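Q: A reviewer asked whether we had any structural model of the full assembly, not just the individual parts. We don't, so I'm hoping you can provide one. Inputs are below.
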Amino acid sequence: MTTVAVKPATMAQALTRALRDAMAADPAVHVMGEDVGTLGGVFRVTDGLAAEFGEDRCTDTPLAEAGILGAAVGMAMYGLRPVVEMQFDAFAYPSFEQLVSHVAKMRNRTRGAMPMPLTIRIPYGGGIGGVEHHSDSSEAYYMATPGLHVYTPATVADAYGMLRAAIASDDPVVFLEPKRLYWSKDTWNPEDPPAVEPVGRAVVRRRGSSATLLTYGPSLPVCLEAAEAGREEGWELEVVDLRSLVPFDDETVCASVRRTGRAVVVHESTGFGGPGGEIAARVTERCFHHLQAPVLRVAGFDVPYPPPMLERHHLPGVDRILDAVGRLQWEAES
Amino acid sequence: MTVMEQRGAYRPTPPPAWQPRTDPAPLLPDARPYRVLGTGAAGGTDPDLLLRLYRQLVAGRRYNTQATALTKQGRLAVYPSSTGQEACEVAAAAVLQERDWLFPSYRDTLAVVSRGVDPVEALTLLRGDWHTGYDSRAHRVAPLSTPLATQLPHAVGLAHAARLKGDDVVAMALVGDGGTSEGDFHEALNFAAVWQAPVVFLVQNNGFAISVPLAKQTAAPSLAHKAVGYGMPGRLVDGNDVAAVHEVLADAVRRAREGGGPTLVEAVTYRVDAHTNADDAGRYRSDAEVETWRAHDPIVLLEDELTHRGLLDDDTRAAARDAAEAMAADLRARMHEDPAPHPMDLFAHTYTRPTPQLREQAEQLRAELEAEASGSEADAGAAAVREGDGR
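A: Here is a predicted structure for the entire assembly that you could use as a starting point for your response.
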């Protein structure tokens, strides 16, 4: 009997492999950003790429996010497929004008003559004890910008599969990497990466009948933990991993909510004006007659991301999620 | 006595790996804008080139006045005129090969047209039927950029990508004096110099960023001086002297194509018209100032030179004027046709494949349009009935 050696891999390793395989498959793929070359990125996601493909393909740029993204726009105009790394979530803000005014709109402005096959990798979110400006969840800004796709993987397999899909996309993708999951592990074979659901489809990660937890990225493991803990309360919680915020999979989400009749949206981004408001509204518009209770949100507080010693109070945890699920039961009790 | 002298034999250890450029002089611009017309240098300029530039300047002026007239007739939402700056616009296009790329800002429609884009297609942004009316890829002309200086890093990236692919393509990036204050200007120049990208940055210093004069924009000795800080040559040129602008830009393009890296060119010119038709230039500058600049008009400067050298007769003058009039008449006629962008175009070019959300919204609009159409058929039917009643 032969056994295939499948070792545990981290999400960061799967992302590295995705970049490497994409660069090997297509000479148009160029990785660029601050520290991505010799250092291999501050999270080592680009480790080894400059050595393997040369500095012209994996380029340490000057420290200037607008310049990085703006140059990538020009490179894409000439037929390359740049993959840009923004070192930390809040460091991407200087490049916002390039993103909103050019990356997102170039296809539209030129009636399709100038596609933007650009991937913008942004490590995002908290939970790793980062200091100020290193833990933002900025997905709502990107979601609110037509022309951008917004992907955020939560598993090792998705990290690989979705990054390959992002790089292959002829449209710009903001690829949000949950940095507290960089070191999460799973059995995964880099020589034969498992196929994943196409981007644009949400995936039910755990079946249940009491309520649906709608979540993505860094909050997925928290929701799965909450679902496990919820069994003690007699709740069978369904957990849906959205995977991409744009495009949004109404179909899978609504099918789940219609089955369970109750829904909680869970994310670390702020609640007010955050992604949860959009998701709750979509669910309410489409599933109103199936709902036993209002769609609730468990989100980060509406404060600037707190200093590391306070972040555990800010981030949605198991207790806060279960508390929300408890509040969903009102109609059943009345 | 300085501190260093007091300390006598003290020799500070130099910081390791610190290698300042000891002679930045080759990067520095001349103290005065470079001129050709009316100087001894003019004799060396090819007469055919001068005559070609002359015809383009005359046509360019007419294009500007015609487009400005179209705003008054409500045919254009707005037109930022480049009257007075035609020498820069014409020369920027003239020095490029077909394979090169032009990155214009919103005031550079004339450069786009000079590059060969159909004048009507170049105006759709300002007319309002679509953002970019011309095929950017076919013409190698980026969309007119309304945000300031944001097109400059694109020019750098494109030129860099071309060089990586082994193509000897040059990018010409246009920006105004106000745009040099933007962060993207800095980042683009820095990237270009570090990468030695084949880019020419042409700053058209026309005196004002809407109403703010250059003195309130920068404290630099000149905008061309900014080049030295990035490690690229800066050139200062009289922006109304088309022969000088052409020569300086052609030099810079040649250097870039041969692997010499980027150049920053500042062309000193003047915006004779207001910022746009929505602007009241009388609030921030005097008529006397404008008149001074009118005397230094790019067409007049060239006419004087050509006349002096016996290259301009009445026939040549008339032929240039007639060609410009014909272009203006054609532009006028075609701009008076009502464009009818299709409503479903709203959804045509947001993504390669529309999201489910966009497909739903497209269906909604399609239903609204069908309802509208059947409503108007009903209206037409009712009108026919009324007409029938009247007989």
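A: Points you may want to mention in the reply: DSSP finds 13 helices and 14 strands in chain A. Chain A has a mean pLDDT of 96.
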